[in-house]
């Protein structure tokens, strides 16, 4: 890790000054922490706020920024104003990231920062990431990816540096819960957010509620599935999801996998209707 850390700090020092696209997740948090160490007050972390940001994520980002010692600001992005984003094709993330990088590039120019940095890592090349095309068009620098750092490397180095989000589960934008082809609307995003908050209140940490019309389908990791499928837990989960405004609720009996919508059509997903305990 010491060699990777030295490589990353060298790369960041050579940038001179930078704005970090900062979600508060482990990847961007590590870049922010290293930028703070390498660039000091010439580094700024910026979090984008929009209806697609889950409740609690901004507060989490603020806490991480304070812990790693980087200046932090928030901006509001209006990706819902882009027809390509609302249409929710497979290039949705391209439109989202284009909006974000438009704003960050403008801020960097106005404030005199030399570059915009992202938290993309080497593992991102193995998934469908149209946002990387937007980054390329805006000349965004990916220190982790360029250094060949994998997600495992990122978490290990984040722990070494004491980054608070080192073990934080991935939390992509709420629009990632909407199947491609289903329009993204602010009301839909708010409903997903309510459902996930309600399920988290039951004690589940890593989860997704997929928006399938009037059905809210919960996905959980293998470790949580056995308990969640017990009748009493199923009933509580059903109440939580229906309380968010869904007419129907279900648990996917397959373990949750991040990026599942990139690998399978929504119509092939198995549904497990929730039933009250007997």
Can you tell me about this structure?
The chain is an alpha/beta fold. The protein has eleven helices and seven strands. It has helices at 2-15, 26-39, 57-68, 83-87, 92-111, 131-137, 143-146, 151-161, 186-200, 222-228, 231-243, and strands spanning 18-21, 43-49, 71-76, 115-117, 208-212, 215-219, 248-251. It has a four-stranded parallel sheet, sandwiched between helices. Strands 5-6-7 form a three-stranded mixed sheet, covered by helices on one side. α1 (2-15) packs across α2, α2 (26-39) crosses α8 and α9 (186-200) runs antiparallel to α11 (231-243). The chain starts with a helix and ends in a 27-residue tail after the last strand.
Reported for the largest beta sheet, the result is: 4 strands, parallel
CATH topology of the largest domain: Rossmann fold
Record field, number of beta strands: 7
Order of helices and strands: HEHEHEHHEHHHHEEHHE
Spatial order of the strands in the main sheet?
3-2-1-4
State the low-pLDDT regions, or none. Answer: 263-272
Instruction: Report the average pLDDT across residues.
Output: 92
CATH homologous superfamily heading of the largest domain: HUPs
Work out the helix count: 11
Radius of gyration: 19 Å
Q: How many domains in all?
A: 2
CATH class of the largest domain: Alpha Beta
- Helix content range of the residues, please? 40-55%
Which structural class should the secondary elements be placed in? alpha/beta
Strand content: 5-15%
Distance between the termini: 53 Å
What characteristic shape results from the CA principal axes? Answer: globular
User: Can you tell me the CATH architecture of the largest domain?
Assistant: 3-Layer(aba) Sandwich
